[in-house]
Amino acid sequence: MSKEVAAGGAPAAGDDLDLGVIWRALVRRRMWIALPTLLAFVGAFLIVNLITPRYKAETSVLLVSGDTFYTRPEGGAGAGSQFDEEAVQSEVQVIMSRDLARDVIGKLGLVGNPEFDPDARVLGLSQRVMQWIGLSGSGKARPPEERVLATYYQRLNVFPLPRSRVVAIEFSSADPDLAARAANTIAESYLDFQRAVKQSATQAASQWLAETIEPLRKQVAEAEAKVEDFRARHGLMSGNAGEVTLPAQQLAELSAQLSAARSAQAEAEAKARLIRDMIASGRVFDIPDVANNEFIRRLLEQRIALRAQLALEERTLLPAHPRIKQLNAQIADLENQLRQEAQRTVRSLENEASLAAARVESVQKAVDAQSAVAAKAKESEVELRALEREARTQREQLETYLTRYREAQAREVENASPADARIVSRAVVPGTPNFPKKVPIIAIVTLVAFSLAGTLVIALELLSGRAFVPAAAPPAHLPPAQAVSEPSRVEPAPPPSPVTDAPVSAVVEAQAPAQPRDEREAVPAATTAADALAPLMARLGDRPAEGRGRRLLVTEAAAGAGAVPLARALADDRVRTERTILLDLTAGEAMRGARRPGLAELALGSASFSDVIGRDAGTRLHRVSAGTNLADALAQKSGALELPLLALDQTYEWVILVVDAAGLEALAPHVLPHVDHVVLVSEEAEQAEATRAAYARLAEAKARDIIVVVPQADGARAAA
């Protein structure tokens, strides 16, 4: 499917606005401006001087707990802990409440004040007529305070200061002294209101506690009586420890006695066994119990004396002498007595061990009996503990209520409950009126009148048509272009479906001069031909990209086909008013800017936008060079071109990339996925093979919206 568009001349511009004509009209009709301005000045001056001035006074109240260490109830919250943002707003509404307003109105005597009470004013004729026909009710039918409330709230302004717990109370009045007294009275009434609310709550709590304590006392007495009765019926009397029952305490004492008896038995048996072994081994006198015996000590002393006497006699007498035999017999008798006394000690220890064993047996029987009693008492202790727990809970509750009742009674007296706020700044009598602001009002009214009068003069001049001058005559129409009639030779096969939509063919005429020898000569020639590219621009502009600028790639089928002049003509600022940037990716530009950073360095991140963007001399066109080894840089970092183009989209409406035939094959895979349109320039119609090959390469690289531009025999260019 093909579509042909004939290109004529550029569309004629509309009439231009002549600022000189508008200025002369303003000067000519200056009285139209000066007179309303002067009237507005005089009127504003008279009005602001006739209006009754109002004075505004302000009082500041800090919301903070007034309780001190001596007035705060036990366990109460600390100062200021209850005032968050919502609480501050709630207190503002309390200050503006109707109950507080009625109290303030009564204290200030606003009823009967003509400034606030409508019934105290002298009614005009219109107001009397409105009342007579029933369209305005009589204010005397309402309560006196209700008649004043509307004006009272108009003059009152209460607001919290940002990031604080301070509330400002503003009141305005024609009387400066009344404005100051009203602001202070509202703050004091608010504090009195808080104290009254606290005292009322304390009285209600005290009354409730008094009604609750008496029944609770009876419940506590009944619960404690049940505990003692149950304890007596089941024999669970408390022992010396107070918390242990008597059976358990007796069992513990018997267990201690049993342990002591077993220890005594074991000790006596061990001593008796030790003494018997020492007697058998002949070490009678090494036994501590034997050695410490007084009788044995005397026997030992006698034996020592007899042995000393025997030794003395043996020096003069023979062993068979009667005296010697007598002494030996006495010594043997003493040793026999010593041995008998040791045996007696062993027997006494054995008797003690027997007695200890008997005591152990007796105590063990008592422990067994008491254990049975204690085990039976444990079952009753469970129920006893439940009764004690209930009695203790009721006792604690009663004590708590009694403490709170005493505190409530102490706080019932006047001024015992401080308000949770204090006045931090009292209002003073204002010396200057708050309304009206004479100088600003006069200045604003005068300026508005001057602006409206000037705007009216300009509007009349624009509507008359004298402010416009005809634009320059448009260039002559060019002869219509001839479409390329080689569909079988020039038009390639349609690309496969997954690439993009089939390219739309269009014929666009553009006049262009002969190809210059170098690019510097091509710049003015392309600029001259730009006026005839309006159809091509319309063709490019019918598919705007959403949310970004439009990207256009201009390339050529063969070397020297003129892609650079056409790209510059498309980017010329005389063609459109949108901001445009030209990315010159040709080999010639890369050689000239080899020492300057370009798109390659920007894509790799080694250069910034301010380093690579330059301005074309004498135009508003911005341009960027290719840089060093752009193809290698893009191949090295996949997708590196998307981020720079996306950034340029945010600043420029058109981003035009120009690639010559030499660099098309290397740059096409990296550039084509990121552009919206492709303009393929062919040097002449006879090079259809090169054009078709370039077209096929672009289609294979997934190019979108390919437009082929070829020259005609008469020097014009046609695009298909």
TrEMBL record:
Residue ranges of domain Polysaccharide chain length determinant N-terminal in the record: 15-107
Coiled coil feature spans: 213-271, 296-411
Localization annotation: Cell membrane
Protein's membrane topology: Multi-pass membrane protein
Biased composition (Low complexity): 480-491
Record field: transmembrane: 32-51
Keywords: Cell membrane, Coiled coil, Membrane, Transmembrane, Transmembrane helix
Superkingdom of this protein's organism: Bacteria
Region Disordered, annotated ranges: 480-502
Signal peptide (UniProt feature, chain positions): none
Keyword Cell membrane appears in the UniProt entry: yes
Record keyword Cell membrane present: yes
Matches recorded under InterPro entries: Bact_polysacc_biosynth/exp (IPR050445), LPS_length_determ_N (IPR003856), P-loop_NTPase (IPR027417)
PANTHER family: FERRIC ENTEROBACTIN TRANSPORT PROTEIN FEPE, TYROSINE-PROTEIN KINASE
The protein's name in its UniProt record: Uncharacterized protein involved in exopolysaccharide biosynthesis
